Each structure stands twice: as C-alpha cells, then as structure tokens.
C-alpha cells in the first residue's frame, strides 16, 4: 500500500513547482487541485478503477488529465500519437476501454466509429462530488502501453504502482536526487521514457519542464541557462543537441547533471563530443515491460565501457539465460519490482515472466565486472529515432496485400535515425512500389514505413522454414 | 523480494568507500568479502535465519560482524551497551538467542551464566563453505531492538528488510542523496539512530564515517574539513558541537548538508546558533518501532515551525487518534512500510498495530499545514490539579535561560494537586533559584511552574543520550 502520490506530494511540498511549460508553471498544490477537479468531471462518465485510453500531445492539459485519472485510479492506455488509424483501432478494441479521451487537435487521427470525449468537452463538464482514494495498492495498474514482440501483434503491458515507484526509487539511488532537480521532458508522454518522468516528479518532488515537441534550440537554452538538471534523450536527439551546442560554442551549465540516453546504444563519437561540452551522458537499457530503466551506465564509465548499458539498478537483477560465465552471449533476463505483472486484452492469459524473470528476447552478455552489453535486440527489433519498430508488424501489414506472397523486414544503418526499416518482398503478381507504400501508409505509423522495397525471388529461411531476418541484408 | 544488499552494493560500486574509522577505510567490495568470511565462520555455530545477540562498541569489527550476520540472514538482537546486567539478562532470555556475540572488552558486563562467543574468538574460528542467499524476503527480520514504551516492560521490536529499506528510501526522497554522501555516525549502532546509518550506507552506496564514541572536537573537525555531509545527533550532542564551533569560531564546510536531529525537540536557541555556523538542522520524529524517521522538518522550516517534527516522509502517514481537525491534541498514529510487523518473545502475540496503524502513545497535533507537533511522550505526562502539564514545555523554557545547560522535569506526588512539576538543572554558570523562578514565571502559566529546582551535575540519559524523565526522581 502506498499513499496517493499526487495528494501526498501536494501535502509535503505544496509550493514547489511541479510543472513548467512555456512561460507558465504550476505548483504541486495547483496540480493536485486541478487534477482533483478533472477527476470530479471524469467521474460523471467512468467509475473508479475503470480503463480509459488517452490520445494527446504533450501539453499541461495532458498532465492534468493523467493526474486526474490517477486520482480516480483509472487504468490509462497511453496511445502513441504516431500510430495509424488501424493500429489505434486495434489497441482501443483490445483494451476494451470505457472511454477515449483525446485532444481535439488529434481526434481526426482516431477511428471514426469510436466515441471520443475531447479534453475541451471535458473542461465543459460539470464536476460531481467524489471521494478520492488516499491509498493505492501496489499491484494497481496505473498505465498500459502497447508493444509488439516476435509475433507482430501488439500486447498491452501493465505498469503498476509498484512498478513505477520502484523504478523511480532505483533510479534515484543510482543518479541521486536533490530538491533542485528539474527534468526536461521532450520525449513523448505516451512512451515510458516520458511517462516515467511524471512518476519521478511526483515521487521526488522534482519539476517537470515540458515541451510539446523536441526542439534542440530550446533544449540547449534550458541546459546552458542552468534551468534544468536532467534530460531524457534518444541517440538522434542527443546528436541534434550536440550539434546545436557546437554551433553556438556553448557548454552545459554547472547545474546540469545528467543526460539519460535510452533507445539503443550511443555512438562513441557522440560521447566524446558530449564530454567536450560538459554534458554527462548516462546510457540506459530499459523497456516498456520494466517501466523504464533496468540497467544504467554511469557517465564516468562511458568511455571505459563503450557499448555497455551498465549495471542493474539497486533492486534489479540481470542474468544471461543458461550461463553464469562472463562474456557468454544469451538471452537477457530481468527480475525486480519494476517488471510488469502481465498483459491485458488478447494476451491477458499469457505469462510475462518465468519464476519472476522477464525473458526479454534481447541477446547480450555480462563482462567480468558485471557490466551488461546488449548485442542484439529482441526479435530483430529495429530502433529508429528512439521508436521501437518490430519487423513482424510491418511484414504482417505487407502480407495483407493481395499481391504479396512473402515479406521480410530488417533494419538498415542510417546516419540520422540510427536505423530505418527496409522490406524484401516476394510477389504473387505484379505491383508497384508506390502502391505498396500507399498500402502500408494506411496501416502503419509513419516511422514504421519501409524506406526501400526490394522485390526478390525468395527469402532466406532456415530448415524449419523460419525467416532469417539477419540474412536479409545480404540480399542487397 | 530484494537482492542481498551487501552483495549487490559490492557488485554495483565495488571501489566506493563503505566505511571509514580512524585512519583506515574499507571499500564496499572489501566489506563484502570480510563479511562473507565472518558468515563462513559464524556458520560453524548457527544456521541460516537463527537469532543471535550482539554486544559491542562501535568499531569496524562490529560492522563486519553485523554484515556477516546479514549474509547468514540471522536475526540480530542489538544489546544496549549502557544496560545493567539485569536488563541484559532479561533481553537475552526473552529473545531466546542461539548465541551471544560480544567484544571481549564488554564481556564483563554480561550476565555470568551466559555463554558468549567473543569477536576475538570468532576471528580464530575456521571458516566453512556456505552458500549465501542472493535474495532476501521483504518480511525477513534483520534487527531486533528492545524498547519499553509506555508500559516499562521492554519489548523486542522486529525491524525487517522492508522496514529498513523503505525507511532509507523515504529518507532519501526527503533529504536527497548524492554519490559524495558521507554519514558521520557517533550515535550508538545498538540504537536505530546508528543502525539505520548502516542500512542507508548499503542502499545508497554512501560512506559511514564511524566513531566509537561521540567526541565534539572530532565531529567539528570532520564538519569543518568537509569530510562528512550528514550527521545524526540528539539535542545534547548538538549543543556540544555548537559550543565547540563557537569556541573555535569556525563554520561548517559547504559540503556539509544536514544535521539530522532526533530524540526529542531541539531548543530554539540551538537552532539560531546552528544557523550562525552554517549547520542546517533537520529535526526528526522517529522511534525503534518505525526503523528511524517517520516525520522530518526541513531546515528551511526550522525557525518558521519551531517545535515541529515536520511532515511525514513520502511513504508514511501520520494521523491524530480520533480527529481530523488541526490543532487538536491526541495520540499520534503512524502507518507505512517502515512500521514494525511486531515483537518477539513475551510480547510476540501482542499486535503492534491496529488496522496497520501504530499507536505510539505519544501526544501531538497537526497544524493547519499538516506539520506534526509532538507535545509529549504520554508516559511523562504530569497531571496537576486536573491540568495537563508537559515536561518538555517547561524544559524548553529553562533551556532558554543563558545559565542553563540541560534541564529535566518530572512530576512529584503532591497532597493538594495530585502531582506538581519539579525541575533538575545542569548549569553553565551560577544562577539563583529565585532568578530561574522569575524567568519561568515570565514564560509559563502558574500551574506549570516547577515547585522545586535541583541543581545537579548531569541528567539521567539512555544510550541514545535521550533524557530519561522517569529516572529524575531518583536524583532526589
């Protein structure tokens, strides 16, 4: 059991700034009161503990709605703003939500047959009297995020009160915390990278400095002025921040403490450039199923342990399936209070762990000091600009086209995005690349669209006829 | 479930200093290895999970024995070094320990009929092969400390893995943590004030700077040189540190962050003097049953909320029995993951909580901002002519007099009034009884004025230097 975080935070540090956006700011007391009012409005439509979907850009209104939902102990399905209409329909249907809450600006992206309550309509709703829970159960679900595995079918991952709190606590024990902490959030709230910043803010009493979109100029201004202490970035964003700092010939303010860099490994060149502009980069290995970081590499080890994701956080354990030996590769397994208890919807019955261990599907090894190296991502995962792209999902989309007999997707190195997906297709009958592009565009988020289509006679397969995605690149 | 803290800490930060004593220091890796060796020696005599008593001064050897016991998951009864032989015999018998471990220097204080393994004998013991547990259960008991509470009968209080970890985590969320933290420990390890410093060290990766005895000159040297960042003190120790700093005309180093001041409220005068020498004082309300701090007053609130113990730490709840109104006095009740699950021995069957709430027996109130004020420990309450008289209030009045170093107040049976308060005073410089009477008269209602003043050399205190008001009467 834990206290209601929003209420407790407002009680403990009412006058501390909880959120900054543009020129405006809100104390934790103000956020609590606004969230309470949202909860009273939401209570007209949904009961405590019900499930809702949320679809909106990163604005203060989104934060207030999220905190309002938390006051009502609603399970929030965070919908990715980049998804196609079809992908959104799948998740909304699978999650069986009582209600979809969306910013009016984004409603047009949602399936037309779905009833939506806009944030603007919610503001007009009468508030009713409610009693909010002053305590939360550890196993209560706060958020649900969809992520695809080997099958290409997205699974809704539960993230509970305990998952989020132990993730935040473990991070604090590793990175340290002070009363002056301000976490710059330019990563999406619908991803665990952004959502976990909100959770840390409530638990630490730290300010969230929110931007609707990533903007390297604004980031650099905040970092140089000493108005933020921490920022979460993926590789491609870090590069843009570095370029901007180099262009302006500026360094990070001494207040600035940490770049938490996730979503795949960071090129050595970036680390060296970061050191020159006084940006301490901390690389991390995390995922939706672990409510953010599992292992994190201290910045002092950044150049000594190049390519490593560091050591587990205090309450976490990492091991390599089937071995205790250093330098032996195998599937990375994770255990700890931050690991999801499971899925919802179609996959609700599927166990997420074995004896408490999450089998990530990622391949890696531990060195002789216990530092983790992630060698290959699960199920041939492609990481493009920090977004996870699952080949199977794109292949499934292509196979739905009447002209496509077989499809295989893999990642191609890309200077800007790290990787981009490319597709290899065996045809039943003639079709143009343009038609396939248009077909995918209807079904997939833009970042998942193959950058190239290659028409081939056959795909590399093993004896069991299983597609060998890692051999696709040899067809080029 | 949690990882074995000692092993995990050695894995995560092997080269960080875990303990400093005199001119020596030990890394976490060294402590882990030495503790492991102790565990292998102890395993000759006790099995995993058994109960032992420990009786020794605060030396590195004690720390290694404690960590060794933790590797074996032993339940450690920490015996107070200032107890009488009779009191020690009671606790050892009540706890039914498998073994008593003691420093040779202290064996003579123990009951003669008890078999003791000295630390020195343990060092000579052959080490056997063992497998230590890599995981600990949340409800596993780490330590047991005896406390009398309101009844006068000492009860052995369990302090579990979860109690200690959530106490340390809650403290970190409140006070902040950094990699540079060094906690100066001059309070006894056999009290929760000292023992909790060890637990925080393991969880935070912070250095313990250990002293066998409190010594204000050494404390001041550490504080002024910037070699420590935090210190735990009780009021009387704080006064000695302040006097020494004033005598030397020195200020705390900018590295120094916090005096955590427990064991009763701190006189306003001390707070003002502390501010002048740059010592940020954080007052706390904690007890054995809550594995250290429950509520803590931030130093910025020290002079704004004089006499307050602050607000609860993040995962804790505090309420006043029978009321939700501000400023209404009643019994202080505490709930949270830091509250003991119960007692051992004679009181094993007695519930420590009601619906999760620990009834402390202490009287207090919450103000309109939710700050806790501890008015008095219930057992010390003096009832005089139907009026409630709280000794602490009278003592605070006396301590404001420039000639008074220490003051203790208790009730004396009185034919007319039932009880009357009497005062025991340790002087800094000469003063007449008449002057003190006049001084109090200005500050207190007539019924609160001490009927007698006794000038004494010292006041009765327990091992944590806490005033024992019930022993005052014996000074007569």
TrEMBL record, chains A, B:
Catalytic activity field: 2-succinylbenzoate + ATP + CoA = 2-succinylbenzoyl-CoA + AMP + diphosphate
Cross-referenced SUPFAM superfamilies: Acetyl-CoA synthetase-like
InterPro entries in the cross-refs: AMP-bd_C, AMP-bd_C_sf, AMP-binding_CS, AMP-dep_synth/lig_dom, ANL_N_sf, MenE
Pathway(s) this gene product operates in, as recorded in its UniProt entry: Quinol/quinone metabolism; menaquinone biosynthesis; Quinol/quinone metabolism; 1,4-dihydroxy-2-naphthoate biosynthesis; 1,4-dihydroxy-2-naphthoate from chorismate: step 5/7
Residue ranges of every copy of the AMP-dependent synthetase/ligase domain listed in the record: 8-343
Keywords: ATP-binding, Ligase, Menaquinone biosynthesis, Nucleotide-binding
GO molecular function: o-succinylbenzoate-CoA ligase activity
Transmembrane regions: none
Superkingdom of the source species: Bacteria
Record-annotated AMP-binding enzyme C-terminal domain positions: 393-466
PROSITE patterns: AMP_BINDING
Entry EC no(s): 6.2.1.26
The family this protein is said to belong to: Belongs to the ATP-dependent AMP-binding enzyme family. MenE subfamily.
Protein task: Converts 2-succinylbenzoate (OSB) to 2-succinylbenzoyl-CoA (OSB-CoA).
The name this protein goes by in its record: 2-succinylbenzoate--CoA ligase
Organism encoding this protein: Lysinibacillus louembei
């Amino acid at each position: 059991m834990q206290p209601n975080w929003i209420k407790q935070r407002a009680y403990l540090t009412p006058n501390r700034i909880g959120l900054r956006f543009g020129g405006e700011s809100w104390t934790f007391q103000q956020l609590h009161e606004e969230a309470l009012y949202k909860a009273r409005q939401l209570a007209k439509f949904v009961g405590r503990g019900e499930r809702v979907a949320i679809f909106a850009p990163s604005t203060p209104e989104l934060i207030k709605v999220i905190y309002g939902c938390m006051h009502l102990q609603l399970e929030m399905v965070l919908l990715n703003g980049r998804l196609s209409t079809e992908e959104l329909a799948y998740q909304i249907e699978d999650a069986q939500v009582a209600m979809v809450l969306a910013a009016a600006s984004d409603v047009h992206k949602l399936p037309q047959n779905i009833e939506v309550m806009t944030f603007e309509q919610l503001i007009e709703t009468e508030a009713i009297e409610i009693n909010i829970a002053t305590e939360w159960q550890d196993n209560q679900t706060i958020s649900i995020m969809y992520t695809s595995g080997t099958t290409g079918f997205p699974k809704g991952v539960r993230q509970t009160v305990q998952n989020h709190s132990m993730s935040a606590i473990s991070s604090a024990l590793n990175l340290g915390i002070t009363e002056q902490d301000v976490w710059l959030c330019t990563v999406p709230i619908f991803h665990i990278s952004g959502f976990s910043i909100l959770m840390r803010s409530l638990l630490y009493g730290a300010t969230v400095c929110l931007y609707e979109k990533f903007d390297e100029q604004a980031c650099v201004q905040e970092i140089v002025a000493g108005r933020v202490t921490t920022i979460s970035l993926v590789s491609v964003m870090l590069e843009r921040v570095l370029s901007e700092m180099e262009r302006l010939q500026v360094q990070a303010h001494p207040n600035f403490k940490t770049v938490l860099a996730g979503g795949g490994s960071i090129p050595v060149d970036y680390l060296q450039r970061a050191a020159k502009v006084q940006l301490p980069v901390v690389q991390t290995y995390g995922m939706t199923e672990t409510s953010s970081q599992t292992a994190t590499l201290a910045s002092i080890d950044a150049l000594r342990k190049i390519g490593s994701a560091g050591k587990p956080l205090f309450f976490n354990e990492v091991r390599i399936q089937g071995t205790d030996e250093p330098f032996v590769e195998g599937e990375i397994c994770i255990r700890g209070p931050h690991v999801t208890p499971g899925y919802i919807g179609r996959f609700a019955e599927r166990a997420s762990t074995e004896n408490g261990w999450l089998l990530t599907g990622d391949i890696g090894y531990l060195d002789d000091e216990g530092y983790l190296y992630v060698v290959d991502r699960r199920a041939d995962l492609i990481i493009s600009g920090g977004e996870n792209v699952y080949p199977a999902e794109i292949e499934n989309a292509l196979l739905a086209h009447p002209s496509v007999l077989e499809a295989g997707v893999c990642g191609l190195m890309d200077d800007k995005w790290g990787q981009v997906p490319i597709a290899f297709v065996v045809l039943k009958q003639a079709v143009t690349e343009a038609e396939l592009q248009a077909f995918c565009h209807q079904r997939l988020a833009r970042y998942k669209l193959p950058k190239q289509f290659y028409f081939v006679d056959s795909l590399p397969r093993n004896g069991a006829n299983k597609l060998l995605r890692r051999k696709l690149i040899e067809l080029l």
